Amino acid sequence: MDAATLTYDTLRFAEFEDFPETSEPVWILGRKYSIFTEKDEILSDVASRLWFTYRKNFPAIGGTGPTSDTGWGCMLRCGQMIFAQALVCRHLGRDWRWTQRKRQPDSYFSVLNAFIDRKDSYYSIHQIAQMGVGEGKSIGQWYGPNTVAQVLKKLAVFDTWSSLAVHIAMDNTVVMEEISKWLRVSMDKKVEITGSIHTSSPESPREPRRVLSVAPCRAGAPWGLCAKPDARWPRSPIPVVIPREESPGCLEAATWYLTSCFVSWL
């Protein structure tokens, strides 16, 4: 299992990755690419996503617990990656790209710090594992998608820098009333918002709360969910991330309802 603890910088993704030649478009988190004319852009987009996997030799969880999550931390790491993408869109924007030997914005390092394997990081393996005890999971026990979503919802409360509100969509159902409730609260405070999964966002730490919806089915069109901005609602992202498809038709149905909801608010 040690092979699973390889660090990202030991992999030379751009050198060995071989893409099939196809006329079909390549979709990456709401962006459309052509393999024939945009291979470099595809590689850059993929290389800019944050990747978390099994680690070892980190400080013991809880002081005396595990020092590695090999074999049990897969779903915890998946939850971290979902949140990492939300934070990247929140603080850096969907157009941000990691470039080797180029100084990155301070907010990039702040996002990374939120996931470092230590007890004082917002979304560390330590925080997730210990918060999971309240969900009936002992430290070192495997999580399912719902458990990690519930835990991350609790942890997001303490992340005042990102100011995310997390909605858990149970039973493959996204409850629009719950999401719109957060938006109405923001609008009551004269907050200007729009819904988008891939627009840029300012970096001010005092910005309004964003809504992150997590459910045990996958939703969102390949092109993303985006309501057009107008003079009243300048662009600000509302990430809707639903990590796992459980039933046929879930993707198409959820896409239609989510898109209709966002557009209806304009």
Automatic annotation (TrEMBL):
Residue ranges constituting the Peptidase C54 catalytic domain according to the UniProt record: 40-220
First-tier enzyme category under EC: hydrolase
Family that this chain belongs to: Belongs to the peptidase C54 family.
UniProt keyword terms in alphabetical order: Autophagy, Cytoplasm, Cytoplasmic vesicle, Endoplasmic reticulum, Hydrolase, Mitochondrion, Protease, Protein transport, Thiol protease, Transport
GO cellular component, one term: autophagosome
InterPro entries assigned: Papain-like_cys_pep_sf, Peptidase_C54, Peptidase_C54_cat
GO annotation (BP), single: protein transport
Main location per the UniProt record: cytoplasm
Function noted in UniProt: Cysteine protease that plays a key role in autophagy by mediating both proteolytic activation and delipidation of ATG8 family proteins.
A Pfam short name: Peptidase_C54
Catalysed transformations (reactions): [protein]-C-terminal L-amino acid-glycyl-phosphatidylethanolamide + H2O = [protein]-C-terminal L-amino acid-glycine + a 1,2-diacyl-sn-glycero-3-phosphoethanolamine; [protein]-C-terminal L-amino acid-glycyl-phosphatidylserine + H2O = [protein]-C-terminal L-amino acid-glycine + a 1,2-diacyl-sn-glycero-3-phospho-L-serine
EC number: 3.4.22.-
Record keyword Cell membrane present: no
Localization (cell): Cytoplasm, Cytosol; Cytoplasmic vesicle, Autophagosome; Endoplasmic reticulum; Mitochondrion
Family matches, as SUPFAM superfamilies: Cysteine proteinases
Highest taxon, organism lineage: Eukaryota
Protein name, UniProt field: Cysteine protease
GO molecular function annotations of the record: cysteine-type peptidase activity; protein-phosphatidylethanolamide deconjugating activity
